[in-house]
Design a protein that fits this description.
Blueprint: E1 9-11, E2 18-20, E3 25-29, E4 35-38, E5 46-50, H1 54-62, H2 65-70, H3 76-88
Antiparallel strand pairs: 1-2, 3-4, 3-5
Length: 89
């Protein structure tokens, strides 16, 4: 009999719901201090997660949850890049 694997859950900064890690987008602050979108989910550094929809992104941006989670300032270009990526999906 195969053992069931536990699915890792992470909390979205926009809606505060626990969801499987694979369904969320990871934003990471790397050791150099640069904030970027982690496409593979394995980049080194401090990370936070957000649902792949604009509503959650806007809620997180408005409440400055991304800056607080990463303990760093996030430039507007990164948010614009993420908005553009979400609008195409």
């Amino acid at each position: 009999m195969q053992k069931k694997r536990k699915v890792p859950l992470r909390k979205c900064l926009g809606c505060n719901e626990m969801k499987p890690k694979k369904e969320l987008i990871r934003i990471v602050r790397n050791p150099e201090g640069k904030v970027e979108i982690d496409k593979v989910g394995k980049a080194p550094g401090r990370g936070c997660y957000i649902c792949p929809n604009l509503k959650c992104l806007e809620a997180a941006v408005k409440a400055k949850r991304v800056e607080n989670a990463l303990e760093a300032a996030v430039d507007k270009a990164m948010y614009d890049n993420l908005r553009e990526q979400l609008s195409h999906e």
